């Protein structure tokens, strides 16, 4: 072998070892998660906050799933926060709302202009009565025991609970691949919480103490970012307070949301999600993301290196095989706990497509702008 081949194989091997160790942490973390079994619900009043922008096709469904929760109406409020919708979302909400514990607010035009979704959540928190804040999205559906299931995870030492979110079952292959890929992201976040390394979560299914939110100054340090109302807050509460972080592993806690119907929507969503990574306060997490990105980049270029030397063919097959095996174990474990194992039939094709997708999205999220809810947003 030439010296170049040796150097490349050493680099690729180190990246592979690092990535497999990362997957091992996730798997062990999933094994440590326990279903919440608190004997009683929290005594604190609850505020469920639902930011929305142009959701006229979904707003009625989320409204009905929330007002029909198996939870005493006197113990929680639902706050819908209109973020400059220019469709009939607000009109529909006002027409169907007959509940005393449901409020509908509109964010003032001059309120944290650049923060977008975060400004709507923050405005809802500023006007809330609850000591525990629960956030979800306006394109979601919740089973009747969702709120009860999430809240049973709280005790006096817990300040933040992340819940599972899954994409709605769709017909075409593109949306099925999104569903299994998104399930993988959710399980990654769950496993890292179980391993006491909280890193990612999803704002469609979160609950946290308002006291802890205020202790870390909420979204104050990242109000200039269009995203980050979920994992950046998770990381701040974990790093800056002594509270515990939990993941609700119960199937009752699952929130159903919609996948992207077009590649363009998918591209901008994932690009927006990827844009948060470089703004993590914990530099170790940034290094972790960079190393994982380099692993995928190495995996992408290895097939092309076969043209240079045949030695890279077996190395690529071994690397791809080990990656797939470890990720299959994580998905199988998580799907048995929360979702549907039938998704595994789309595992291999998703594994293949995932390699160039992560390389492209990581680069785009770091340097590009994106579109969200018909807004052109700067990173």
Mean pLDDT: 88
Tell me the number of structural domains.
Answer: 2
Percentage of residues in helical conformation: 40-55%
Which stretches are low in confidence, meaning pLDDT under 50 for 5 or more residues running?
none
Strand order of the largest sheet: 3-2-1-4-8-6-9
Helix and strand content put the structural class at: alpha/beta
> Order of SSEs, N→C?
HEHEHEHEEHEEHEHHEEHHHHEE
What is the assigned CATH homologous superfamily of the largest domain? Spore Coat Polysaccharide Biosynthesis Protein SpsA, Chain A
CATH class membership of the largest domain: Alpha Beta
DSSP strand content: 5-15%
- Gross CATH architecture of the largest domain: Alpha-Beta Complex
**Total of helices:** 12
> Quick one: how many beta strands?
12
Main sheet characteristics: 7 strands, mixed
Shape: globular
Strand and helix map with partners:
Blueprint (H helix, E strand, L loop, with lengths): L2 H30 L13 E7 L6 H9 L8 E7 L6 H8 L5 E5 L10 H10 L5 E4 L5 E2 L3 H6 L6 E5 L2 E3 L5 H22 L11 E4 H6 L15 H10 L3 E4 L7 E3 L5 H12 L8 H23 L6 H26 L9 H21 L2 E3 L2 E3 L2
Parallel strand pairs: 1-2, 1-4, 2-3, 6-9, 7-10
Antiparallel strand pairs: 4-8, 5-10, 6-8, 11-12
Helix pairs in contact: 1-6, 1-10, 1-11, 6-11, 6-12, 9-12, 10-11, 10-12
